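Dear colleague,

Following up on Tuesday's group meeting, I ran the structure prediction for the two-component complex that the binding team flagged. I've pasted the input sequences exactly as they went in, so you can double-check that nothing got truncated or mislabelled along the way. The structure tokens for the whole assembly follow below. Feel free to forward this to whoever is handling the docking comparison.

Inputs:
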Amino acid sequence: MRARCGVLVAGVIFGLVACSPDEEAASRGPVSGAPAVPSGSTAAESDDRGDLVQPHALPEGAPERFAFGVEASPARVAAWDIDVKPDGEGLPPGQGTVAEGEVVYQTHCVACHGLTGVEGPNDRLVGTAPWRDWPTDRAVGNYWPYATTLYDYIRRAMPQTTPGTLSADETYAVIAYLLHLNEVVPAGAVMDAEALPAVTMPARDRFVRDDRRGGAEVR
Amino acid sequence: MTDRPSGPLSRRAWLTTTSGVVAAGLLKTQADAMRLDAREAPSEGRALESQAPPDPTSIPGRLVSELGSRAPAEQPRRLLRAQAISSSSRTPLEDLMGIMTPADLHFERHHGGVPDIRVEDHELLVHGMVERPMVFRMSDLRRYPQVSRIHFIECSGNGGGAYARDRMPTEITPQALDGLLSTSEWTGVPVSTIFREVGVRPGASWVLAEGADAAVLARSVPLEKMMDDAVLAYGQNGEAIRPEQGYPLRLTLPGWEGNTQVKWLRRLEISDRPTMTREETSKYTDPLEGGRARQFSFTMDAKSLITFPAYPYVLPDPGWWEIRGLAWTGRGRIDRVEVSTDRGRSWVQAELQPPVLPKCTVRFRHLWNWDGRETVILSRAVDETGYVQPTVEQLWEARGERTSYHQNHQRAWRISRNGEVTFGLGELV
């Protein structure tokens, strides 16, 4: 129930190791239009609480910290930290081929997505022509901007009736198969933690940031 | 209401039953029996009401009960899309008054079903670019200083059924068209309070919010919004959040599309970039003309909807009728709502029912003396930024005719000479 002050140092170290904002800022900083937040500080400076993002005011007299709740150990974080980012952060070890993926697909996916990924009844997965209409034409090959999203999504939500049951190898394999059906990778492709984020999706540059701002103009 | 006398058996059922389930079962049987000798099959509600005595002052009423129930004749229901793992149900907007949505009628949109979660086991993990990654149990979160605010939540797919030029509906109710909209008082702890506990590091700009449902639904949210008015909500309209709305904990992001307000919240990861989850790439992005798609279109723009008169209501005669509806915007307060009763040729300002709260629905009303001639009635909301709810032609022009999500254009209802009301946008375009 209570935070242990002694774990504070470990928490700081973990934060530096796990997040390393400095290393990554140049290559994967906030995408354009991201909200204005303090930036440019170094990891060393961040130990100064004055540099931290400041929340809005609490009631007068509130302590610096309430410390309800407990510190999370690195193992505790790792157990739930399942998301995969476009640069590949979060991808586990393992690998899978297009051929192996076809077996996974025909076993776990075909009932909802059809023999070739276009028949449904659930979402269409395969589409190579530039999309025109909603929803039938939009699919992985012509709409999904990042290949890593496949890993993130399949691991968290698929197969729909038994989510989270595919192994890492099976997941990489079915992704390789889907990317091949979408004509994004060749038949001999092998997907793993290095290959997947290196895949450039056809729809990568289609997405623009929201430019609606209120006011008189309709956008 | 009918004056059909009720028998002693049915009266006893009312008096002795404290379980709503049992009462419904008994009364349904009686209602079915009633139908046998009724020429027209009454709705269940009307049949139940007919069990009332002719003179309610002649006999003592029911005793106190632990849990209240709706009047038998008042049985609003959500409208289900499909019995599927990923599905939705819609709020009966035309059955509601004021702005609040009864919690059991709040719309649903789940991607992996409604999880059953033991409150004593539920935990929220907050980690990433923080000084101290932490885990909070519900008892911890409830102990933090509390806030309570009234906001709408709307699915950004709401209203998509009346956008395509060649598929404009006529026989569609407010519920079926725009029922992915509900308003509640949400109670909880500001996200900023929890982020103060963990210490957000410099350079952080995004937060991944993740649910404990079978879809483990996840959305990336700008840190700025989290620090502004986001709340970790555990209360809804005075009681614990309903399972369908995220029990025991959901994220509320006032004014933003419903999908971002992650239910059954179990994890917040503070980061310097979005995760690009399926829900923010493949879904909930808005295709535009020219093969582009708008991403991270979080805010719900100003919108209004006349909920009365609306399909399938029939105005029995000309004369005085009050046009009633709801208006809302994710960009602050509604400034005014204008109503047209002549196909959009002229507009008058409707009355707004206080309070007019930010990022909340407001009830509007306009007293109308219908002359009995065929017409089309419309409403348009104007928010405090000066944004005027656009016509569908304006949205087609700005985004193309095949876009999806955020279809907040003006709605219209056609009134025929015999008083029949149908969705009327097709009349105008």
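Chain B touches chain A through 91 residues (CB under 8 Å).

Cheers,
M.
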